[in-house]
Design brief:
CATH topology of the largest domain: Rossmann fold
Number of domains: 2
CATH architecture of the largest domain: 3-Layer(aba) Sandwich
Helix content: 40-55%
Number of helices: 17
Strand order of the largest sheet: 3-4-5-2-6-7-1-8
Largest sheet: 8 strands, mixed
Distance between the termini: 60 Å
Strand content: 15-25%
Radius of gyration: 27 Å
Length: 485
């Protein structure tokens, strides 16, 4: 066991060990070999004033934040007699920047500096004369005027604006030739992190100096069996081709947008069961409802002849296959058994029919309904009529993204199946939308999924996603097969 006065933390500048010695010293603070490799390269650049820029991709929960905190602790200790700054930015101040500050404070206390370090202005941690300055990289954050002498860290670099970094953060180290580190995970091929990574790989080919470090979930799992079990469970839950699994754990970037569902995923979605028009005794059912826009409903009679495929209200009914008593951790399977579609019918005219279908015909245990805009009154009405079984769903950029990711997970895991083709207009429209559905990847690991309006509507697609949401509500709130009536 290393003492708090080990050479890695107490060496003077005139008799300083090598960066590898420092990295070895950091090992006593629970850093794994891959973290030590990164630390050694960064410290070499800092101590030799080389001013290199590094990109570091470590799988989610693989220890990049701990690595960052230990580097900050070491640099503050080494330079505590000098009025020098290290600067770290994160995409948001709360919670990301705050969490980074808390971690550094904990490490300072662990190293015996409790009562020695000081907090200043709510975003600075000082040890002696050296300071760690924590900033937000949010577009609206005012960060100009800070100087990075020791290190410039860009946390979750894939979520930081290229313009914000180039104009406001990168210049912080211009006069000091500061070493810069971009930490994060993969997302799409247009992020700041991906741009830095590609530039680093090109420079590595030219001069042989390693600047990009990548450790996927398998690299991390070699040192942590609990992590191995966790990620394998995530792979089973999401599917190995799920965007979040590919980017966060495999560190494989998504190349732009494209089709939302692949041919393989559409094949997985196809089931062998028949469509049903009424429930079976002893079965549990859930529903997802996508509502037509009222404006389009009112214009329907006039526009039907010009553009026959108008926005519709669609209800998708799913039959749940609940996990056995010995497998309570698994989510329920969902078999799509029925579709209802109304085109050109006002919401107020649909109220009694919706209540009858959901309450008296299928006795749905959970209903997820679009409660965005004009859908809010319908959701409120259904909640009054059906009680806690109804879950209003408000579409926002983030909530829709989560809805889309959850739908992909249900398909990838084989939990969601569509009834076999019956030649109906509903079945044909369902598969048309599944084929035409597109995806668009956005910052902060969010995604949009939709059907191009020029090609049609996405009523069946959204109703399907809401069906999966309803099933998850049943699983979460009634995991033992119980639900309010």
């Amino acid at each position: 066991m290393c003492s708090r006065k080990s050479p890695c933390l107490s060496a003077s500048a005139s008799a300083r060990p090598s960066p590898s010695d420092y990295a070895s010293g950091l090992a006593c603070h629970r850093l794994r070999p891959y973290q030590q490799e990164v630390a050694s390269a960064i410290l070499r650049s800092v101590l030799d004033k080389r001013g290199l820029t590094f990109s570091v991709e470590i799988a989610r929960q693989g220890g990049k934040n701990e690595l960052s905190a230990q580097l900050e602790l070491l640099l503050l200790t080494l330079y505590m007699a000098q009025p020098l700054n290290l600067v770290k930015c994160s995409p948001t101040f709360k919670p990301q920047t705050v969490i980074s500050m808390m971690r550094l404070k904990d490490r300072l206390n662990d190293a015996g500096f409790g009562g020695v370090w000081l907090a200043e202005l709510g975003y600075i941690i000082r040890l002696g004369n050296a300071r760690a300055v924590f900033l937000s990289a949010d577009e609206s954050a005012n960060v100009v005027g800070n100087t990075a002498h020791l290190l410039l860290e860009i946390d979750e670099s894939q979520d930081v604006s290229k313009e914000k970094y180039t104009k406001e953060f990168k210049p912080m180290g211009a006069t000091t030739n500061v070493t810069t580190v971009h930490f994060g995970t993969a997302w799409d091929d247009a992020t700041l992190l991906e741009e830095i990574k590609q530039a680093n790989l090109e420079m590595e080919r030219k001069d042989g100096v390693k600047r990009h470090f990548r450790y996927d979930w398998q690299d991390v799992a070699r040192y942590n069996p609990d992590y191995l079990a966790y990620v394998e469970a995530e792979r089973e839950r999401l599917g190995e081709n799920h965007p979040l699994f590919l980017t966060q754990y495999c560190l494989v970037p998504i190349h732009g947008g494209g089709g939302y569902l692949s041919a393989q995923q559409r094949a997985q979605l196809q089931g062998e069961h028949s469509r049903k028009h009424q429930p079976e005794p002893g079965k549990s059912y859930v529903a997802g409802i996508d509502l037509a826009g009222e404006a389009e409903v009112e214009e329907e009679a006039m526009l039907r002849a010009v553009k026959p495929r108008r926005d519709s209200t669609v209800v998708t009914i799913g039959e749940l296959a609940l996990p056995g008593s010995g497998d309570m951790e698994r989510q329920p399977g969902i078999r799509i058994v029925e579709h209802y579609r109304w085109t050109g019918k006002k919401h107020t005219e649909l109220y009694p029919q919706l209540v009858d279908i959901l309450k008296n015909v299928w006795r749905c245990r959970r209903v997820a309904v679009d409660a965005t805009g004009v859908g809010q009154p319908v959701a409120s009405f259904l909640k009054q009529a059906l009680g806690s079984r109804v879950s209003p769903f408000a579409f926002t950029a983030r909530s829709k993204s989560e809805l889309g990711f959850n739908l992909l997970a249900a398909i990838n895991s084989g939990r969601l199946k569509m009834y076999s083709g019956d030649g109906s207009a509903e079945c044909r429209e369902f598969w048309f939308e599944m084929e035409k559905a597109r995806s668009q990847y956005r910052p902060s690991q969010t995604m949009n999924f939709y059907v191009d309006p020029a090609q049609g509507h996405d009523d069946f697609l959204m109703s399907l996603a809401l069906l999966v949401e309803a099933a998850s509500q049943y699983e979460t709130r009634g995991a033992r097969g119980r639900a309010s009536s």
